[in-house]
């Protein structure tokens, strides 16, 4: 079980559970075609973002296998919601997890995704005592791959045309890190 103490602070960011007032910031990036491009969903309208926000607001603890922790990422300098980071407890028996992140393109290229994703990796390894954490992404998403590489994750697989996403064959790339690699890594 994982119940982080909130808020979680990094050098520049605050990570916390989503709340009702986050709708505008959430919609600002969920409505963009360039954000949805490599994800399973299409750009969302305001009502779809509102429904998704309700789901996100209840994802602040991980109690059982399959649960997702979903945290809002706020840039403290401006107070803006700039994205989200996620951690799923995929397997209790095998101590496996998965991380993910989505950021507003207005904040790309500043290291925010790496800074925030490092927090959920730490929560996975040190909070849930996971053995292995992976990150899966569309093979065309080079920027997301760079985030995982900066975190010290290793590219383990490139699955060629393994699924149809939005009507076209898509490659999937898998990165992973083991607990002993986390413990031995240089800090990001």
| Class derived from helix and strand content | alpha+beta
Per CATH, the superfamily of one domain is Gcn5-related N-acetyltransferase (GNAT)
Question: CATH first level of one domain: which class?
Answer: Alpha Beta
Q: Report the C-alpha radius of gyration, rounded.
A: 16 Å
CATH architecture of one domain: 3-Layer(aba) Sandwich
Listing every helix as H and every strand as E from the N terminus to the C terminus, the arrangement reads EEHHHEEEHEHEEH
Quote the CATH topology of one domain.
Aminopeptidase
Total number of helices:
6
Distance between the termini: 26 Å
What percent of the residues sit in helical stretches (DSSP H or I)?
25-40%
Strands of the biggest beta sheet: in what spatial order?
A: 1-2-3-4-5-6-8-7
Describe this structure in words.
With 188 residues, the chain is an alpha+beta fold. The protein has a domain at 8-131: Aminopeptidase (3-Layer(aba) Sandwich). It is 29% helix and 35% strand. The protein is built from six helices and eight strands, in the order E-E-H-H-H-E-E-E-H-E-H-E-E-H. The protein has an eight-stranded mixed beta sheet, with helices on both faces. Helix 1 packs across helix 3. The protein starts with 7 loop residues before the first strand and ends with a helix.
Describe, in short, the structure shown.
The chain is α+β, with helices and mostly antiparallel strands.
């Amino acid at each position: 079980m994982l119940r982080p103490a909130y808020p979680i602070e990094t050098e520049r960011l605050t990570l916390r559970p989503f709340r009702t007032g986050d709708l505008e910031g959430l919609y600002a990036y969920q409505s963009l075609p360039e954000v949805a491009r490599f994800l399973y969903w299409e750009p969302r309208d305001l009502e779809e973002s509102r429904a998704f926000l309700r789901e996100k607001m209840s994802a602040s603890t991980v109690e059982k296998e399959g649960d997702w922790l979903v945290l809002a990422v706020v840039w403290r300098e401006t107070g803006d919601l700039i994205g989200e980071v996620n951690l799923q407890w995929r397997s209790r028996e095998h101590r496996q997890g998965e991380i993910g992140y989505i950021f507003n393109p207005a904040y790309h290229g500043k290291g925010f995704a790496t800074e925030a994703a490092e927090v959920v990796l730490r929560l996975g390894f040190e909070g849930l005592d996971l053995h292995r954490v992976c990150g899966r992404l569309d093979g065309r998403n080079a920027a997301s791959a760079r985030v995982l590489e900066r975190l010290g994750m290793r590219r383990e697989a490139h699955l060629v045309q393994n699924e149809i996403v939005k009507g076209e064959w898509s490659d999937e790339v898998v990165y992973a890190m083991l607990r002993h690699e986390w413990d031995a890594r240089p800090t990001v």
